[in-house]
Design brief:
This protein is an alpha/beta fold. Among the domains are: 68 residues, Orthogonal Bundle (Arc Repressor Mutant, subunit A); 103 residues, D-Maltodextrin-Binding Protein, domain 2. The chain is built from twelve helices and eleven strands. Strands 3, 4, 5, 6, 9, 10 and 11 form a seven-stranded mixed sheet that branches. Strands 1-2 form a two-stranded antiparallel sheet. Strands 7-8 form a two-stranded parallel ribbon. A hairpin with a 5-residue loop joins strand 1 and strand 2. Helix 1 crosses helix 3, helix 1 packs across helix 4 and helix 2 packs across helix 3. The longest helix has 24 residues. It is elongated and about 75 Å long.
Length: 295
């Protein structure tokens, strides 16, 4: 069994979060030489190199495992301090990765239900729901809203429901590109909106409609609200969360390309399997908010 000292794990965290031995030394009020000696001792214990001496310093695959352990230990220490009523400068901080559409539609409802007593803080990282598990594996986050149902090692998974989207465009856009009404025959010529280069929603919809890949003109707007605004202004067609486009559809400002066609993305909540009161509190808030917002 590999056993690291608490001081060593805190040191590894400081190095990875600060990026250099010198910056970690300043944070921990020791010398850079002391930091280097602690890391070398950890690597001797593990029998593997844990850190790549790059700028900034990054974890190796073995270091990623130890990084996750160090973050889990820090969270458990923070939880214990809160339960004991101890004053601490280190608050229980939960790092969680959330996709942009969830962040813009329902995830804030979850955060708003957390007890506002200053004992818990959240660091929300925005990433595509298809890629969020990579941050879980690396130990950079403790939980994730993800489209992946298979649990990451060391994590539990709960289904949250499905985010639903409608393929829409402005009335002016439809008049310009589909004057006779929507047809797959002319679809390839119409400009499309994309969130970023990891976005597959529009490409999947286009392929479902035409049987071909989306290769035409595309605009990239990496912000949920501005993406919707770009569609409303006629820059291109795109898939928008149903909760964000319903009023505009009812008002006739947006028109569905294929009325009644819904694209759904199942979402899941993955979290570390540790007995953390703070992480459990956040998980309960997330599942409750998702139950109200998702299908």
């Amino acid at each position: 069994m590999v056993a690291f000292q608490t001081e060593q794990l805190h040191t590894l965290l400081a190095v990875l979060e600060r990026g250099t031995f010198e910056a970690a030394a300043q944070q921990l009020h020791v010398s850079a030489s002391a930091i280097s000696q602690r890391i070398k001792a950890m690597e001797q214990t593990a029998g593997q190199i844990l850190l790549q001496r790059t700028t900034p310093i990054t974890a190796t695959s073995a270091g990623t495992v130890v990084h996750r352990l160090a973050r889990q230990l820090r969270q458990l220490e923070a939880d214990a301090s809160v339960e004991l009523g101890l004053q601490s400068t280190d608050r229980a901080s939960i790092a969680v990765v959330v996709n942009a559409d969830s962040l813009a539609t329902w995830f804030m409802d979850a955060l708003a239900t957390l007890v506002p007593d200053g004992t818990l803080s959240c660091e929300v990282i925005r990433a595509d729901e298809q890629h969020s598990v990579d941050l879980l594996r690396s130990g950079e986050v403790m939980a994730a809203v993800t489209a992946t149902a298979d649990p990451v090692q060391g994590c539990s998974v709960l289904p949250l429901g499905a985010m639903t989207y409608r393929a829409v465009a402005s009335a002016a856009f439809m008049n310009q590109w589909f004057p006779q009404g929507f047809s797959t025959q002319h679809f390839a010529a119409a400009p499309a909106m994309q969130f970023d280069r990891n976005d597959t929603l529009q490409s999947n919809f286009f392929t479902a409609m035409t049987g071909s890949p989306l290769l035409g003109t595309q605009h990239f707007i990496p912000d949920t609200l501005q993406f919707g605004e770009a569609v409303k202004r006629g820059l291109g067609w795109g898939l928008i969360p149903e909760s964000h486009c319903r009023l505009d559809l009812d008002a006739g400002e947006l028109i569905e390309l294929r009325p009644g066609y819904i694209s759904s993305i199942p979402l899941f909540w993955q979290r570390w399997k540790i007995k953390s009161a703070a992480l459990t509190q956040l998980s309960e808030a997330v599942t409750q908010a998702a139950a109200m917002a998702l299908t």
